[in-house]
Amino acid sequence: MEDPSSNGISTAPLLPQHRGPWWRRNLRLRNPLSSEMSGAVGDLGTYIPIVLTLTLVSHLDLSTTLIFTALYNIATGLLFGVPMPVQPMKSIAAVAVSESPHLSVSQIAAAGLSTAAVLLVLGATGLMSFFYRYIPQPVVRGVQLSQGLSFAFSAIKYIRYEQDFAASKSGSPRSWLGLDGLILALASILFLLLSTGAGDTDSSSSSSSIEDTDGSLELSQSKHRIKQRLRILSSIPSALLVFLFGLVICFVRDPSIFKDIRFGPSKLHVLKITWDDWKTGFFRAAVPQIPLSVLNSVIAVCKLSGDLFPDRELSATSVSVSVGLMNFVGCWFGAMPVCHGAGGLAGQYRFGARTGLSVVFLGLGKLFLGLVFGNSFVRVLSQFPIGILGVLLLFAGVELAMASRDMNSKEESFVMLVCAAVSLTGSSAALGFGCGILLFLLVKLRSMDCSSGFFSFKKSKNPVNEANIIP
């Protein structure tokens, strides 16, 4: 029988052939293993301060939070195939510890469940995908820019000033010397910069293109040496080493930690949430959290995933449902309300995470700490150098803010910057988002030809990138 390939006819299977199970494909290495492990700690600059504050002020059960967030990390790493972060719901945490009276654990759980219910409904009904499809890109970039700069501003405060997380305020300027001094923070910045640079992963390819176009043997050898050095530096798990160094400093600062360690997790129990808890949690904490979760935990995360992983852009529906399901599982047991966050994704990517394997590593680490050390691990976290947390948060914030660098036209940049400015000064992503949408419509209205007497929406292949209103 004649081989079809001999006639130039290629045959392809009717169904796509995938090698191995789906979870193995999602965990397939795309970077050195050391880089994935380094990227795993990229979002701890936001995670640790908020968890520590809620534990000290609101008596959050640290063991339960570590165990459930560990399970979330492992599940999202397996399902999404990207370094999907699991971070605290920041508005709920801010209200819980900064307003008086402080929210109880039951009220915090009620706020998390209320927010989760809204996101679950938006995701299940497809409304979240509709919003994601038609929200103009300059507005999304404005939200990302404001969130990134907010992280960077907080990071600078962590580095420069003493922090009292229990009182939610900064103290006196940090001293230069000491186990949490400025020199330690600056040395961490220097180490991260030398090993990771500006986070540009395309430096090697650009070097090779220059090498190919120049016939000089000496220049070619020089470029080769540079590429080798950059490859070696990028293989160093720099963020992981900085974090582990911070853990060592914890025990050096206070050796009595060894005596306070108690092994074993705390007992799980279902919270009793009263009607008053539901009302207080919803109106005081869930109402400001819901718009932030929609914008930063879903819209901005999906957009950033498309920027960082063009072949693996996340679905707004799946991310929204994921936030809802996570909190419906954990909040009933007193775990901290969580969401996904663009800042965490940017931080993990910045330090080398490229697949779900990095957050699986992080989840396994949290699970070990929660099961072995339980609530006594709060003694370790309370001694962690805040300056090092500030350094990790600084790199994550800058990486997120740099996602807005693709605004090429003056019109797009104008909308983005106003949206970011309002979000920062008003301390509300929802307010900045509303102003950005209004400004975008006004700018488009100015250049419209209204002679046709009606308006219609132009549906593009990528509406987030080309959301335009035309006559």
TrEMBL record:
<feature type="transmembrane region" description="Helical">
    <location>
        <begin position="62"/>
        <end position="82"/>
    </location>
</feature>
<feature type="transmembrane region" description="Helical">
    <location>
        <begin position="357"/>
        <end position="378"/>
    </location>
</feature>
<feature type="transmembrane region" description="Helical">
    <location>
        <begin position="414"/>
        <end position="443"/>
    </location>
</feature>
<keyword id="KW-1133">Transmembrane helix</keyword>
<protein>
    <submittedName>
        <fullName>Molybdate transporter 2</fullName>
    </submittedName>
</protein>
<feature type="transmembrane region" description="Helical">
    <location>
        <begin position="108"/>
        <end position="132"/>
    </location>
</feature>
<feature type="transmembrane region" description="Helical">
    <location>
        <begin position="384"/>
        <end position="402"/>
    </location>
</feature>
<feature type="transmembrane region" description="Helical">
    <location>
        <begin position="232"/>
        <end position="252"/>
    </location>
</feature>
<dbReference type="InterPro" id="IPR031563">
    <property type="entry name" value="MOT1/MOT2"/>
</dbReference>
<keyword id="KW-0812">Transmembrane</keyword>
<dbReference type="Pfam" id="PF16983">
    <property type="entry name" value="MFS_MOT1"/>
</dbReference>
<keyword id="KW-0472">Membrane</keyword>
<feature type="transmembrane region" description="Helical">
    <location>
        <begin position="177"/>
        <end position="198"/>
    </location>
</feature>
<dbReference type="GO" id="GO:0015098">
    <property type="term" value="F:molybdate ion transmembrane transporter activity"/>
</dbReference>
